[in-house]
Amino acid sequence: MVGASLAGLRAVEAARKAGFTGRITLVGEEPHLPYDRPPLSKAYLDTRPGGQAPEPPVFRSERHLREHLQVDLRLGKAATGLDVANKQVHLGDEVLDYDALVIATGATARTLRGTEGLAGVHTLRTLDDAVAVRKALDAGARTVVVGAGFIGSEVASAARKRGLPVTVVEAAPTPLTRAVGAEMGAVCGELHRRHGTDLRCGVGVDRIEGDGRTERVVLSDGTVVAADLVVVGVGAAPATAWLEGSGLRIDDGVVCDKYLRAGADGVYAAGDVARWHNPLFDRTMRLEHWTSAAEQAAVAARNAVNPARATAYRTVPYFWSDWYDSRIQFVGVPAADEVRIVTGDPARDRRVVALYREGDRLAGALAINGQNVIMKYRGLIMKGASWADALAFAERRRVAAAPA
Amino acid sequence: MKISVDRTKCTGLGICESLAPDVFEIDDNGDLVLKTDTVPEGQLADVEAAVEGCPTEALRLHQAEPGSA
């Protein structure tokens, strides 16, 4: 297993659960034991009594990994090459032979060109990133977040929770345009404004200035915003550089079939790095979601140890993000011919649910504080429900909830 | 098999409900409700998927206590 985050760990666990007793090596570029990333932009950034740092969200102890799961851990070692003909993974000078390989190297946060070496500018992807961002918030940083995506918005929430001033700069006209579409992105953006975050859309970052460390951010419209901390949340790119020349097909991720097979004997991919064919939507997808990473890893590992009984991975994508006191959840795909709000009035209500239509099908659903209903829509999408069925379901819920 | 939920970990993300809706449901307050604490006939695989799919590792499956129903 190459990649020691959620997918790498889950691949190990699934292989063992499937009865595989052979050798398993887990290779990870970071020196840390496998840890959970969603908390890094959420609870990990909260204030703590006495100001002490929280425990890192490590999944399993080293002893559990080595003794219970019988894993040969190679942490702090980056994979540098793959030779599918000889079935070997290169870690610099070291060579590992494999019979089956699960590629789970994830994605790398995109950075802003020209900010290298300027202290106070961070991405938020790794534990080390989170430690640095947390430290800056502890010091009372004036924060500028670049990119109103999930990570950036969660950082803004964390800073506001501490009462610190935050500006979020988003190049697109609304937050989350790609993830939930412009219409509902605008609704989510209102959460920032309501909580005192200065959200500026349709404007880019021209440069970050400072003497060795960040002092101010100059926006593309010439505005200057003072900043001690800049968090760059402008997306992530699949970590495939080490696969160059391997012969595997790379196209914004490792291209896989529905069984998560990457096109070479015994090679599978899972998690953020994998672009696979999702039979449920009959299209290729690359997801950067916790749920699909965990599930793909389990499927890939089971298929790797038992290829004769390979199963396809089909899913309705799901992600969540916590902004201030609101939870945003999305299921399905936002590529939609129509978006219709079926619950709540965004101007007035805390709970808002919107449905996304593609052709005559229900393709997606977004809930803001709609934990009670979002998974019911996920079930409908999984079953291939029609748009009419989805609207009828929403209407039944509305009638049932209406005061008598 | 019995199902239990650690309320100190559960945040009501609801992945369990989408995998085993006969067992798990998120209520109007956003809290997880166990519709039954016993795995229904023929649904062990779904409940196992829900336990494994929980991002906060709040769910557990265990053998029923000897002598209990």
TrEMBL record, chain B:
Coiled coil: none annotated. Keywords: 3Fe-4S, Electron transport, Iron, Iron-sulfur, Metal-binding, Transport. The keyword Lyase does not apply. Residues 1-29 form the 4Fe-4S ferredoxin-type domain. Gene3D superfamilies: 3.30.70.20. Its cofactor is [3Fe-4S] cluster. It holds the Pfam family Fer4_15. SUPFAM superfamilies: 4Fe-4S ferredoxins. One of its GO terms (molecular function) is electron transfer activity. The keyword Signal does not apply. Ferredoxins are iron-sulfur proteins that transfer electrons in a wide variety of metabolic reactions. This is Ferredoxin.
